[in-house]
């Protein structure tokens, strides 16, 4: 509010100094009072969208961290960092299991690489296949790959859920909360442990597993 020519105070909005009569160049934001608000509104909208996206991601991540685990999954080891699974279909990849001192063994590297693997009892004593995957919070899950209700023997991952390939049923990867039919007949989790780069599943537990029907 100072005249650049004589240094006198001037009234707000004046274009001529009342003391020396010099022309005063109005500031850009005074000449175009509506320009700044438009820019400020645009910035506010962009910032709001960013905040909503970030809070949405935090909410989804927190939902997975705070979700109640299936009792078997709760005791499973953490083998990877937390991750967000894409909302695209991840099919099971067949891998070969071997016997290791009374345990059915597969490679942990294969599970990490393929995200969902499917395999059989190497000695053929259990005809139901098994699957292994890692939850968004990094826990290893091994389970019998069957849903007795519809007869499915295969599944796929999508988002935070595991889906049946034979019907519309799907369940949360960690809690096995059901979102469609077959609420009781998700891939039945069984305990496993990690030794070096091997996932070990007690063969006797696999072979004595029985139908839930």
CATH topology of the largest domain: Rieske Iron-sulfur Protein
Assembly of the depicted chains: single chain
Count, helices: 5
Structural class: alpha+beta
Give the averaged pLDDT, no decimals. Answer: 85
CATH architecture of the largest domain: 3-layer Sandwich
What fraction strand? 15-25%
Spatial separation of the terminal alpha carbons:
85 Å
Main sheet specs:
5 strands, mixed
The rounded Rg comes to 31 Å
Instruction: Extract low-pLDDT stretches.
Output: 27-32
Strand order of the largest sheet: 2-5-6-7-11
Strands, total number: 13
Rough outline: rod-shaped
What does this protein look like?
- This protein has 213 residues and is α+β, with helices and mostly antiparallel strands.
- It has 2 domains: 34-66; 71-207, Rieske Iron-sulfur Protein.
- The chain is 24% helix and 23% strand.
- A 5-stranded mixed sheet has the order 2-5-6-7-11, with helices on one face. A 4-stranded antiparallel sheet has the order 1-8-9-10, with no helix packed on it.
- The radius of gyration is 31 Å and the shape is rod-shaped.
Structure characteristics:
rod-shaped, alpha+beta, 23% strand, 2 domains, 213 residues, 5 helices, four-stranded antiparallel beta sheet, Rieske Iron-sulfur Protein, five-stranded mixed beta sheet
Structure described in brief:
This protein is α+β, with helices and mostly antiparallel strands and 213 residues long.
């Amino acid at each position: 509010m100072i005249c650049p020519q004589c240094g006198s105070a001037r009234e707000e909005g004046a274009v001529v100094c009342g003391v020396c009569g010099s022309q005063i160049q109005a500031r850009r934001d005074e000449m175009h009072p509506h320009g700044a608000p438009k820019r400020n509104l645009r910035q506010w909208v962009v910032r709001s969208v960013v905040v909503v996206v970030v809070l949405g991601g935090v909410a989804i991540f927190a939902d997975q961290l705070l979700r109640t685990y299936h009792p078997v999954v709760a005791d499973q080891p953490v083998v990877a960092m937390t991750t967000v699974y894409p909302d695209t279909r991840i099919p099971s990849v067949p891998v070969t299991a071997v016997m290791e001192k009374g345990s059915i063994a597969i490679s942990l590297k294969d599970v990490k690489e393929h995200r969902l693997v499917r395999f059989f009892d190497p000695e053929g004593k259990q005809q139901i296949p098994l699957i292994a995957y890692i939850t968004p919070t990094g826990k290893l899950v091994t389970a019998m790959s069957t849903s007795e209700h519809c007869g499915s023997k295969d599944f796929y991952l999508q988002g935070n859920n595991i889906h049946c390939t034979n019907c519309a049923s799907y369940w949360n990867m960690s809690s096995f909360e059901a979102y469609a039919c077959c609420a009781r007949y998700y891939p039945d989790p069984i305990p496993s442990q990690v030794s070096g780069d091997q996932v070990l599943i007690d063969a006797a537990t696999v072979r004595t597993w029985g139908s839930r029907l």
